[in-house]
Write a structure and sequence with these properties.
Length: 326
């Protein structure tokens, strides 16, 4: 994406002021600044950090995994230099500015007695909060407060499982959905609670990015199986935060998505391969599944198998996917 005009705007404004541009005696136009703002959505306890570059045109909400924190997911994506804090000095403004992306980092909550189990209520785990309502309110806040109509929800691990829940149950809340090593809960295999998107041609895009050597989701040798299993289940105090480690295998779920959205079937041999990445593209590019061969569960493990020389390769892949939807 060519962002040079946006990058030249502040400099051009400064040149006009220095050369007497504008009305005589008029104050110089305010300089555009990168900002980090941490606040809350009314009615919810989650702290939300907004990393706002000058000229942002879209927002990406990134959900951390179970037991994680909002700064660490930014670090894992190559967009924050700290795992414990997000400040104007730690954010990767170069990447955000070039792609005109406002990065939104919510902090997951935990149930009483399990302070380490910061997570999302996605049927595999529970945070003790109505995270579906929280994300709906957060999307609305982004659109009304910051004027950004294009809002993507992405998540890693249990954050990706939450993104899957939203795609199934509240698809119109976000413009696109991305899951990194976070398959849907097996709840959506039950007859009473299927994942059925009823938006037809307006069904939002979905990108899944998964390793086939994931030691948490047990994908090795099980890529096409109907179910994956979190094994061993991570144990926090009391272990009450983990509800069910049975997940839907991502390949199996993508087959269902493709059939539901555009009435076609996925061919296991019909992928395009580049390096260690196999890509299945369906429904005119709306549904994309990427298998990263040899990659374990972490974002860093996935990135290392994709391109170890690029710390932002995962986000670059996400942006390429989102650009293809416009």
């Amino acid at each position: 994406m060519n962002c040079r005009p946006a990058l030249l705007v502040p400099a051009l404004a400064g040149m006009m002021t220095a050369c007497g541009g504008g009305a005589p005696g008029a104050p110089a136009p305010p300089a555009l600044e990168n900002q980090v703002v941490t606040t809350q959505v009314p009615g919810f306890p989650h702290a939300v950090t907004f990393c706002i570059p000058a000229g942002a045109t879209r927002a990406i909400v990134a959900l951390h995994g179970g037991g994680g924190n909002s700064s660490a997911i930014g670090y894992q994506l190559g967009l924050n230099s700290s795992t414990t804090a997000t400040t104007t000095g730690t954010v990767n403004w170069t990447w955000l500015g070039a792609h005109k992306v406002m990065l939104v980092l919510p902090q997951g909550q935990h149930i009483d007695g399990s302070p380490g189990a910061t997570t999302w209520s996605n049927y595999a785990m529970t945070s003790g909060q109505d995270d579906k309502a929280f994300l709906q309110a957060l999307a609305a806040k982004i659109r009304t407060t910051y004027g950004l109509a294009d809002v993507t929800l992405m998540g890693h691990s249990m954050g990706g499982t939450m993104a899957n829940r939203m795609w199934c149950e509240s698809p119109s809340t976000f413009n696109a959905y991305v899951s990194l090593a976070g398959p849907a809960s097996a709840r959506f295999q039950q007859a009473a609670t299927p994942c059925v998107c009823t938006l037809g041609s307006a069904t939002p895009p979905y990108l899944g990015l998964f390793g086939d050597a994931d030691s948490v989701m047990q994908t090795s040798g099980n890529w096409t199986q109907p179910n994956w299993y979190v094994n061993p289940v991570v144990v926090w105090a009391g272990n009450a935060a983990f509800l069910d480690g049975t997940m839907i295998g991502e390949w199996h779920q993508q087959c269902d998505r493709v059939l539901q959205v555009c009435g076609t079937t996925l061919d296991l041999a019909g992928c395009q391969t580049s390096g260690n990445v196999d890509t299945w593209t369906s429904c005119g590019g709306k549904l994309v599944l990427k298998r990263v061969r040899g990659a374990d569960h972490g974002v860093d493990a996935i990135a290392a198998r994709m391109n170890p020389a690029s710390p932002t390769v995962v986000m670059d892949t996400v942006m390429a996917f989102l650009a293809g939807q416009n």
